[in-house]
Amino acid sequence: MSKSLLELTPVEAVACCSPVTREALSAQAAERIAPLVKAIADPVRLRLLSLVASHVDGEACVCDLNDAFELSQPTISHHLKLLHEAGLLEREKRGVWVYYRINDNALRDLATLLGGVTV
């Protein structure tokens, strides 16, 4: 059974859409993709995404990321949660810590949506 565009996650919606350079997005596609783009529009979240991606073994826990910011651990956790909910990060609980890893497919899909646009 296939999902309609309105039932897709933001990551799934990006994956199914043509790059914006080939044709305009539909209103429904834009509604579904906006949360993914919004998630990376925040400087803290964009930096967190980069820190997780570049961390040893491609994963990090909150304890690994706190020192990079002048923010509280709960604030960092909140931003990581938003990135996870958008589909950009995967997470795994190990004991008391939650480890985050980049969702490579989500980043690839986002790049596909943008169609390799260069300035």
Quick gist of this model?
The protein has 119 residues and is α+β, with helices and mostly antiparallel strands. It is 52% helix and 13% strand. The N terminus is likely disordered.
Characterization of the model:
α1 crosses α2 and α1 crosses α6. This protein has 119 residues and is α+β, with helices and mostly antiparallel strands. It contains six helices and three strands, in the order αααβααββα. The N terminus is likely disordered. A hairpin with a 2-residue loop joins β2 and β3. The longest helix has 14 residues. Strands 1-3-2 form a three-stranded antiparallel β-sheet. The chain is 52% helix and 13% strand.
Question: How is the secondary structure organized here?
Answer:
Elements: H1 10-16, H2 27-40, H3 43-54, E1 59-61, H4 62-65, H5 73-86, E2 89-94, E3 97-102, H6 104-114
Antiparallel strand pairs: 1-3, 2-3
Helix pairs in contact: 1-2, 1-6, 3-5
